[in-house]
């Protein structure tokens, strides 16, 4: 698997560095408040109230006995495709070998009776693998498997067309679930896994037509990979890589140790709607080096307290937002249900900062600052073309870099009470900015070119929003911090039609 290393802000121009304002954050309790037991918005309370599977074997189903170790894998092997397997109540085991796993055949269907558990006993790496398509898993608990980092326990090989419903995937290493094309992940509990709840990644090709709906995705990245491998960018509730068309709706994504949702590198055509994203250590949502998305009607609360405070306490002046759009934008030339990134009708309440639009001037195809190793934009088929002198002229000057452009942010409600978040500064930012381009020496994007473009020329627009609290606005580079009047004025002209007040009722 290609490893994505999380980028950091690269050095700014000397003048910009000299102008950076001194910042700090007052002390806050070591632990943030416990996540609310239930959100006020109606969401998937799957983990607390998992539905029961069938108490009797369906007609024609093969019964699997928990008293016989390896019975599930053996019966799967000995039966034809399109077989239904009913797992009796109890703890089912595989053979005591790290690579022992169930290899379904096309169309196989696995149903768990009430209390049916497939347990890896911290011995087996994978629960279900192989390339068979159209496999269904329902009403089963899968736990105790030890997949390596960046690998997954259920659908280990990212086969296509799988349906996973009403299943609990918990307390495993690696990712609880991998995702293939046309996969449907509905009404599951994905909690306490070592790395991700879901890793939507396919080793060969792209994932398309993914549905993630009505799941509870909580407390993942228990192995704290960002601490073990600083900068790995390999943590969170769900990670997407090279996905074409994803509907992520009605999920409760909370308490993950890292970002809640992270779309990273050459994703396209996402709809992220009607989710509750709260109490995640990092950003609620990162949309990075990707294209064309609708982000709407989400409730986003108390995210980014851990990561935001850590960076602020360390003197980092970068406005790391709770919705973080990094080198991503609308691109009409790439087919999707929208030709922009539209962020609207969301409620963001007491997060560490708001929305950040960022573009790394030094990150482009073939640059050593391209943290998505070996990847290029979806606009360039032959990456080798992105070199000088050709990259300095059209069309490659534009097409060889991921651009934060055509982002439309409107009709959102942004609420901030610093006493709730526990900070004095750096948690109150909206931002659109880039760094000063410095390298490599053949880069055509050096200097302030990218910062000028993202701020004034790439059709990034806030309008018709409601702000409650002491918001500030960062433009062009971290040294330019504006109040609401300056943000609305020349030359930025942002947030036309928006309202701003210090507190509710004001």
UniProtKB/TrEMBL annotation:
- Give the matching PROSITE patterns: PROKAR_LIPOPROTEIN
Write the record's keywords in alphabetical order, separated by commas: Repeat, Signal
Q: Which residues form the signal peptide?
A: 1-27
The residues covered by the Carbohydrate-binding/sugar hydrolysis domain are 158-312
Q: Give positions of region: Disordered.
A: 27-58
Give any Pfam family that matches: Beta_helix
Recorded hits in SMART domains, A to Z, give: CASH (SM00722), PbH1 (SM00710)
Q: Return the InterPro entries for the record.
A: Beta_helix (IPR039448), Carb-bd_sugar_hydrolysis-dom (IPR006633), PbH1 (IPR006626), Pectin_lyas_fold (IPR012334), Pectin_lyase_fold/virulence (IPR011050)
Per its UniProt entry, which superkingdom is the organism in? Bacteria
Protein's recorded name: Right-handed parallel beta-helix repeat-containing protein
The organism encoding this protein is Streptomyces pluripotens
Q: What is the lineage of its organism?
A: Bacteria, Bacillati, Actinomycetota, Actinomycetes, Kitasatosporales
């Amino acid at each position: 698997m290609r490893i994505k290393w999380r980028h950091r802000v690269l050095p700014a121009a000397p003048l910009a560095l000299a102008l950076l304002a001194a910042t700090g954050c007052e002390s806050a309790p070591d632990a943030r408040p416990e996540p609310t037991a239930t959100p006020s918005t109606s969401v998937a309370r799957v983990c607390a109230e998992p539905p029961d599977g069938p108490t009797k074997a369906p007609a024609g189903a093969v019964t699997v006995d928990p008293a016989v170790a390896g019975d599930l894998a053996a019966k799967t092997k000995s039966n034809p495709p399109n077989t239904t397997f009913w797992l009796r109540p109890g703890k089912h085991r595989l053979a005591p070998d790290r690579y022992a796993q169930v290899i379904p055949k096309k169309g196989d269907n696995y149903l768990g009776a009430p209390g049916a558990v497939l347990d890896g006993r911290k011995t087996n790496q994978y629960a279900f693998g192989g390339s068979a398509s159209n496999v269904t898993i329902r009403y089963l608990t899968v736990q105790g498997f030890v997949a390596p980092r960046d690998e997954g326990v259920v659908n280990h090989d990212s086969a296509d067309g799988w349906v996973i419903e009403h299943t609990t995937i918990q307390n495993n290493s690696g990712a609880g679930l991998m995702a293939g094309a046309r996969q449907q992940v509905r009404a599951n509990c994905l909690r306490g896994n070592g790395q991700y709840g879901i890793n939507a990644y396919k080793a060969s090709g792209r994932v398309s037509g993914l549905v993630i709906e009505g799941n509870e995705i909580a407390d993942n990245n228990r192995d704290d990979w960002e601490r073990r491998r600083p900068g790995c960018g390999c943590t969170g509730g769900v990670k997407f890589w090279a996905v074409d068309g994803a509907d992520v709706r009605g999920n409760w994504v909370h308490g993950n140790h890292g970002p809640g949702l992270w779309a990273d590198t050459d994703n396209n055509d996402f709809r992220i709607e009607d989710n509750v994203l709260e109490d995640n250590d990092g950003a609620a949502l990162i949309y990075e080096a990707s294209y064309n998305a609708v982000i709407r009607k989400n409730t986003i609360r108390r995210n980014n307290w851990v990561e935001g405070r850590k960076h602020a306490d360390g003197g980092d002046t970068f406005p790391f937002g709770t919705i973080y759009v990094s080198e991503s934008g609308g691109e009409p030339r790439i087919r999707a249900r929208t030709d922009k990134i539209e962020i609207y009708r969301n409620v963001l309440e007491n997060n560490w900062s708001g929305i950040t639009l960022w573009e790394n001037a030094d990150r482009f195809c073939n640059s050593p600052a391209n943290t998505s190793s070996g990847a290029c934009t979806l606009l360039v088929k032959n990456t080798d073309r992105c070199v000088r002198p050709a990259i300095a002229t059209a069309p490659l000057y534009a097409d060889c870099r991921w651009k934060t452009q055509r982002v439309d942010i409107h009709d959102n409600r942004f609420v901030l009470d610093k006493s709730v978040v526990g900070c004095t500064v750096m948690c109150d930012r909206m931002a659109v900015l880039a760094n000063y381009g410095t390298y490599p020496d053949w880069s055509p994007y050096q200097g302030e070119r990218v910062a000028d473009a993202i701020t004034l020329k790439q059709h990034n627009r806030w309008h018709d929003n409601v702000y409650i609290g002491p918001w500030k606005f960062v433009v062009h580079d971290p040294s330019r911090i504006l109040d609401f009047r300056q943000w609305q004025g020349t030359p930025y002209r942002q947030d036309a039609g928006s309202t701003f007040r210090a507190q509710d009722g004001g």
